[in-house]
Design goal:
CATH class of the largest domain: Mainly Alpha
Largest sheet: 4 strands, antiparallel
Number of domains: 2
Mean pLDDT: 89
Structural class: alpha+beta
Distance between the termini: 20 Å
Strand order of the largest sheet: 5-4-7-6
Number of strands: 8
Shape: flat
CATH topology of the largest domain: Helicase, Ruva Protein, domain 3
Number of helices: 9
Amino acid sequence: MRIIFRLFFFLYSFIIITPLSASETLATVNGSIITKEEVNEFVIRSIPGMTYDSLSKTQQKGVVKKMIERKLFLEDAKRIHIEENPAYQKALQKLKENLLLDFWMKVKVEEIEISDQKAKESYLANLQHITQPPSVKVRHILLPTEAEAYSVIAQLKESEHLQKRFIELAKIKSTGPSAVNGGELDWFVYEQMVPEFSEAAFALEKGTITQRPVHTQFGYHIIYLEDKKEKTIMPYEKVKPKIVQDLRIDRFKIKLENLSKKMKETAKIIVK
């Protein structure tokens, strides 16, 4: 039962957060489309804290290449009729059964009603755990070599209007995908970026840049801190959906135990 629960919670979360909207086409393979959405999902699963847009252009091309290869391998699997393989059919049946259970549990959880009063009581009882971690908003310039990064830092130090000059140089010199936006990145918490980048960003004062290039696997970064938010208690309305879901799951666990006992009483079960 624990294994089923773990699988359920993983798939349930995935179903909720996975967008289903139309997406930009990045490539086609024999008429089969590869969208930016599916490539982004692959990146998120493969590299924690990263998205397709946060990769360098070279890395983006590499990921798309892998997805193209996947499409070709799928074509070959179909060509040699893997779908007719008995072992494949057996594994597919197991996957269908697990997916059926996952959706059954999802329906059962969503049937449980949680009052606003109960949700508020849970919120007030857990205020110390309902917090928004510190976050920062930065711009960055990504360069391939340390020497180039130091050269840009020197140019920035000479500027009287640091932010304006940073945006200009980001558009001209940065090799990262955010160059077109002057190096601008979305708000992020510490764990969302690679450690070297986050450590440098969170150590900055608002309106300042890193004095030395920050080296990561992507290259050499110069970071400008635009703004910073300290740790805060999250407002009730923002966390209410998560609280309601947690309370539903807690009640569902009890209902599941009761349902199991009830069904066993009338089922014909033979254990050998």
